[in-house]
Structures are given as C-alpha cells and as structure tokens.
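Revision sheet: structure tokens.
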Amino acid sequence: MSSQVEIRPLAQEDFERVIALGNLVHGDGYLDEQMLSEMQHKALKSGLNANFVAYLEGELVGFRLTYAPGNWTLDRWCSPALWPVAPEHCCYFKCNTVAEEARGLGIGKALLESSIETCKAQGALAGVSHLWKQSPDNSAVGYFTKAGGKLIKEHPERWNNNPDHPDYVCVLCGSECHCVACEMILTF
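Predicted:
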C-alpha cells in the first residue's frame, strides 16, 4: 500500500465525503446523514471506533463501516445457527467502499485490518458480513474470501425494498434491486 494513504477512525468531519462516495459507488440513497450517524453510534464500544476512512493525497478514497459486537441486531438475513461463533461475539462488517481510481492499492485490506483489530479489542471473536455478489468481478466476495472469510449462505434480493435503505437505487438494477448478498463470516 502507498505510504501516502492515511487510515484513521471515521469522524464527523468525514461524513459528507463518505456519504458522497457511498452513493457514487453503491447507488443513490445508499447513505445519508442520519444513517451514517446511526452507523457511527453502532461502531463505538469501550471507547473505540470500529469505522475507518482512507485518504490518499488528502482525498477520501475509501471507508469501512463496522458495528461493534453487541451493538447490532440480527435480521432475517442472518443465519447464526450456521456460524462457528455466538452472535454476541461477532461484529458486523456493514460496508467496505473504495473509489474506483484507488482500487488495487490494498486500501480495502488495510481498512478491514483496522476494523478487525479494533473489534478484537471490543471483544469480537469473528465478524459477519453480507457481501455484494454482483460487485465488479465479484470483488467484494473475492477480497473477503482472501482475508479468510467463509461463505455461510446466499440471499437473493437482500437489498430489494430494504427498510434500512428505503430510498436506495442500485447502480445495476435501479430501484428494484435483485442483487445477491453472500452472508460470510471471518473468525479472528
């Protein structure tokens, strides 16, 4: 990774840029101020923040949003009976986003490693995520697998009419998202 990349915890002054990058990469309505504030609250535990941002030459080029263990609620897309770790010991890797021009520089990996170290300090033994199978070249699943993640289950139409993202417009499908979420777990 380039020495010019700065990885640090997400702060309020990053919100506008994170929202813009998230909506650019994932689609309009993916993030807004209220959502990001709630996500930031879920990342905080034991005085530590599990959310991180990456800057390259002063420009935001990536972010990782992660919920601390015990700070998130399982939903119908979670399969805890298939996990090797109890849910209360799992963090939730909500989103990893890297700007197109900064992909391939190791930024996604560095963001994940920063979140893992923080989540371990918060008491996590593993992290669960729902990865976007239709990401370019299925890169989301590929990168998480390379990091040690194991596929638990595939969930078609995970993001279609999702109450967490009511105004979401998928960059591939439009307002009726048919993309598949790959539920994966990474043990530490």
